[in-house]
Design goal:
41% of the residues lie in helices and 20% in strands. With 188 residues, the chain is of the alpha/beta class. The structure holds adenosine monophosphate and magnesium ion.
């Protein structure tokens, strides 16, 4: 698959979760894929999108709704995980593009669920961990959360934290600042 370097896809997933351990009869499953794209030439965040996914082996707990605002009723209207993967591949050329997420959770959860459901991953091999990059770029001794990174950059947190669509959009802005800095230093 030829690599496309026109856009970076920023992905932030939300999954079913509980206040404490996962109940023995359930499994944490992706209920939202939030996606934003960054134009590599201009470093402008482009579109943002939410793909809601119907969980099959778990339900949305009150704790999960409190965290994400997502309800069982909302995700019941969602698509299957394999359809969501097809949307990423077909509408966003996700296999050929570099993708980014904040931390390693999204990459690991995606791989786990693809493996469990025997779905070929729609995500390419080129992944940027923005959380790690942010800490390294700023010489921090430890990684910081997304809200803290925005605060340090004086960028307002837009939308609802812990909704995939808004998290992805905010992460796109963090990545845009980091890449702008790299390019500016190169030009100096
Ligand atoms: P985030 O991108 O930070 O909104 O988190 C992604 C997913 O991680 C959420 O949808 C939850 O499944 C899980 N998660 C995040 N924070 C917590 C928390 N405090 N307790 C339990 N699960 C969490
Ligand atoms: Mg999130």
């Amino acid at each position: 698959m030829a690599r496309l370097l026109d856009q970076i896809l920023i992905i932030d997933i939300e999954a079913t979760c509980w206040d404490g351990p996962t109940p023995s009869d359930q499994e944490s499953e992706i209920i939202e894929i939030g996606l934003a794209s960054l134009d590599v030439t201009t470093l402008d965040p482009l579109e943002k999108r939410s793909i809601l996914i119907r969980p099959e082996r778990s339900t949305v707990s009150p704790f999960c709704t409190q965290l994400t605002t997502l309800t069982q009723k909302q995700v019941d209207q969602g698509v299957s995980f394999s359809t969501a993967c097809a949307i990423l591949k077909n509408d966003h050329n996700s296999r050929g593009r570099t993708w980014a997420s904040y931390g390693d959770y999204d990459r690991r959860q995606f791989a786990r669920q693809c493996e469990a459901l025997q779905v070929t991953s729609p995500l390419g091999m080129s992944h940027i961990n923005v959380k790690n990059l942010f800490a390294l770029a700023n010489g921090l001794s430890h990684e910081v959360g997304m809200a803290e990174a925005l605060k340090r950059l004086d960028i307002p947190l837009e939308g609802t934290h812990h909704r995939g669509i808004d998290d992805a959009w905010n992460i796109a802005h963090i990545l845009a600042v980091l890449l702008t800095r790299i390019r500016t230093d190169e030009a100096a």
